[in-house]
Amino acid sequence: MDMFEQKRCKSMMTRAEAEFIMKKEVPERAFWIVDCFCNNYNRLQDVLDVLYNTLPGNDYSVSYLASQKGTRLVIFCQVCRIELTSFGPFSSHNNGKSHKRRQQQAASTKSVNKGRTLEHRRLNEPKGIFLKGSLEDLIDSTRFIILGVQFVYKECICGQYCFTCQLCQGDCEVERVNASTMFTHLRSVVHNKKYMAS
Description:
Distance between the termini: 60 Å
């Protein structure tokens, strides 16, 4: 297996070991360099998992960065969408105000959704937010596909809403009609043919 195809496995590292590695080895420049003799990918990911990713809202992952000078490890902060190329930038980023704020936002978002089960909903499921009996409610609650709604003109005359289909206005009697008549018209063969032909 190629060293670049290594997969993360569950860490058996203790917190004391992770703290020792973070304090003594990670600050060294050589720790981050990847070659055929040394690859600290799994060790660094284990340290991050034990010390940082256990905190709510934190999500650090290790990846490789290849350049003309060779390959090295980088830490990617999933929360802030930023790449950290060595111990110094990682340390200052982790302790920075911007990261702390985003970490808290991510933690609060996860806690709000925690315990909820996701339920499948149909794409065209009625929203039920429109006035009962209105044209919008009739369109929202139907199981049929309604075409050409953008051609319907709505106006209020003497406190009553009436509708005109500007697509079919010359061919049919669809000028200033009520909601149920317009809904029937929108489902008609005449309207749908005219819409498809336009």
